[in-house]
Amino acid sequence: xxxxxxxxxxGNLLNAEAIRRDLESQGVEFETxxxxxxxxxxxxxxxxxxxxxxxxxxxxxxxxxxxCGVITPDQVIAIRDPFGFRPLCIGFIPxxxxxxxxxASETCALDTVNATxxxxxxxxxxxxxxxxGLQSVIFQKASRHAMCVFEFIYFARPDSILKNCELEEARxxxxxxxxxxxxxDADMVIALPDSGTPAAIGYxxxxxxxxxxxxxxxxxxxxxxxxxTQSLRxxxxxxxxxxxxxxxxxKRVIAVDDSIVxxxxxxRVIDLLRRAGATEVHMRISSPPxxxxxxxxxxxxxxxxxxxxxxxxxxxxxxxxxxxxxxxSIPGLMRAVGRGTIDEFCRACFDGSYPVAVPQQLEMxxxxxxxx
Length: 372
Ligand code: SF4
Prior knowledge:
Elements: E1 6-13, H1 16-25, H2 35-44, H3 51-59, E2 64-71, E3 76-80, E4 89-93, E5 100-104, H4 107-112, E6 116-120, E7 125-130, E8 133-138, E9 147-148, H5 149-155, E10 161-162, E11 165-166, H6 167-181, E12 188-191, H7 197-207, E13 215-217, H8 230-240, E14 241-243, H9 245-248, E15 252-257, H10 264-275, E16 280-285, H11 313-320, E17 324-327, H12 330-337, E18 345-346, H13 348-351, H14 360-367
């Protein structure tokens, strides 16, 4: 071990369990169940003359999604997995005591420290920053790149730029594509705030139907789909959203959201809109149906929790109680993203084509449609 270090990680390791068991068999003790600790212990027990050599050796054993920063006493090392699932970028601060580079997951973080964007860390690249500047090495190449397309739909902040594309703009284009693919006659377009707002604006622009605010979101409640239990998620929807009754009364409403995961939030929202007086509620979703679980770090649940895993779109429409329901197609999504070909992105939660082999046990746990 070369000295103390600290690690930050965004992603999910696919072989964390196997590495943990291997290290435990060598007497290594763990204090948490986090895969970040697996990485830290792996680095701790990998030999090498320099930190860069140790980290390269450790990550050669790891599969899955990771964008990591490692801080040592005299270096900061950024490393991104060969598929490039999660974002990672380099910025530059010209006016701090001495000019300095910084690393961040998303470019919006650079703005908050007055850093300028330099470039993205490439998939499979390790960048070492120290007093001599930046040194870069491509440490592993994958058969293809597979940036998570869900970062474009929902996950990353709208004020971030990925693949030279501002995400707010991409989300507006998703709404425009959706309006062209799934038009419907109505009086107003509303968003499920906040994440559905850019797509709703795009839908309104392309359809010529006015955009109105129909639901007010409490600023004190967080995302509902990542709450741990169903009852907390349902309570979250009611606490989070309140309808504007005078705006909605007697109106045919197009409600735009970025995704439907379990369908419970959508059902609650449609109930809210009807109780507020909406005469028709047409749901439009600015992503394709989520039919498969994510193994690369987005906690959308297992197949048995995903409403689209074994239901058709008409069946989902019936379950959530909408007058009509339509999703954006995968080609429409790619046109909206407008960067690279479809094979440069991971879209496995929509079509099940995982870019990286998933360990059998994980597959069994998350892909099973029914509990026995
Ligand atoms: S499965 Fe979906 S959420 Fe997970 S990395 Fe792929 S595109 Fe992103």
